[in-house]
DNA sequence: TAAAATCTGTTGCATTTGCAACAAAACTAA
DNA sequence: TTAGTTTTGTTGCAAATGCAACAGATTTTA
């Protein structure tokens, strides 16, 4: 929605400003951050991709969010009191910019031009996040695995043009993202294929409806 | 998290400012807004309660959000392109303040003190919304009805002190909120009771674990 | 206050989903 | 290149969930 907002530029300004924003690199499979303390931390993924993951008491893994270039994440988006172990894992080499909201927001001397537009920029960032979350919520409220898959496919097929696409997750991860059993999901994929709704070749899917 | 932020005061300022924010009242069961156009509308519930509801093609009802006093909602939080019929229904007499984000944000003459802090206030509002959504997402990723119920109960029992509380929804609505079948949910409530995890008296629940 | 509408509680049965397990394929690291 | 690890694909079976239906309780409306 806020495509007019240039996040790359914003990130650049953030790094130049006050030295309060830091950049850090991570290797594949490294843990970027754990959500424990209440540090009001905000992070922006400059490049690469990552998963926000939760394990519950039974050892069930859930991929809470999939993060790609220019997505924001951080403790500030979560309630202070949480029972769960939440962390962000790099899926490839990534670079992130992170800062503490309060530091950037209040403690800076409001002299640079950047600070005047800071809140407005952050607002756009967070509004975009809200929209993503609502899409996620819509998927999760779907009652059956079939509907969840269809909902997921439709997000990959945003423009409605590319009826063939590659799933950017392993099927194991996809099940953890849809919050369903993997074998049941595979079964459903098979049914969708047999009933002619999709064609499937490895991680490549073609919609046929 | 941002308890320092006084939303009542903010709403007041909003109404005084530029005449661009409007107030409106609705009776119980009236539709407050439908999410169709992309008006970048933001609403604040001044008092009362409401549900953000979706019906899918099969007629399944989902309560996407439950809204109470001082909660924000509006089209701005949803993707432009949506397949679903989304609307907000008043559960009792309500009063809302609404405005179009772009109008407030850009078109005002930036002379009043209010406008200087507008973006920062909106940011806090939206950050709080993000947190609520993450709590909602956590609930929805729970794999079983039992876990969903427990997750829901724990949000009602935030302080951890009031182990007895009244469910602010009918059981019919609760099922639509958890996105599960009502009879299956009732069965699960019965099991929880029989196994001694809860006591139940109408809409009053006492946690026993 | 009576009638209508909605909600609660419950059940039997069908369907879906989860679990456990395993072999084959694909990928990764030494 | 090879051994180890992870992913994919599949199945049988158990458990959970959904569906349909209905009676009684409760609430709303006329």
Write the layout of secondary structure elements.
Two copies of one chain form a homodimer.
Chain A lengths: L6 H10 L5 E5 L4 E4 L6 E7 L2 E6 L5 E7 L4 E2 L11 E6 L3 E7 H7 L5 H29 L3 H12 L7 E3 L4 H8 L3 H13 L3 E4 L2 E4 L2
Antiparallel strand pairs in A: 1-8, 2-7, 3-6, 3-8, 4-5, 4-7, 9-11, 10-11
The structure holds a DNA duplex (30 and 30 nucleotides).
- Give unreliable regions of chain A as ranges: none
Helix content of chain A: 25-40%
> Termini of chain A, distance in Å?
27 Å
Supply the CATH superfamily name of the largest domain in chain A.
Jelly Rolls
Largest interface between protein chains, with number of residues from each side: A-B, 39 and 39 residues
Number of helices of chain A: 6
- Give the DSSP E fraction of chain A (strand runs of 2 or more residues): 25-35%
In order across it, which strands form the biggest sheet of chain A?
A: 1-8-3-6
> Over the alpha carbons, how many angstroms does the gyration radius of chain A reach?
19 Å
Could you describe the largest sheet of chain A, including whether it forms a barrel?
4 strands, antiparallel
Structure in words:
- The structure is a homodimer of 209-residue chains.
- With 209 residues, chain A is of the alpha+beta class.
- Chain A folds into two domains: 7-140, Jelly Rolls (Sandwich); 145-207, Arc Repressor Mutant, subunit A (Orthogonal Bundle).
- Chain A has helices at residues 7-16, 101-107, 113-141, 145-156, 171-178, 182-194; strands spanning 22-26, 31-34, 41-47, 50-55, 61-67, 72-73, 85-90, 94-100, 164-166, 198-201, 204-207.
- In chain A, the strands form three sheets. Chain A has a four-stranded antiparallel β-sheet with strand order 1-8-3-6. Chain A has a four-stranded antiparallel β-sheet with strand order 2-7-4-5.
- Chain A is globular and about 65 Å long.
- Chain A starts with 6 loop residues before the first helix and ends with a strand.
- Chain A binds chain B through residues 1, 38, 54, 56, 60, 62, 64, 76-81, 83-84, 105, 119-120, 122-123, 126-127, 129-131, 133-138, 140-143, 154, 158, 179-180, and chain B through 1, 38, 54, 56, 60, 62, 64, 76-81, 83-84, 105, 119-120, 122-123, 126-127, 129-131, 133-138, 140-143, 154, 158, 179-180.
- The structure holds a DNA duplex (30 and 30 nucleotides).
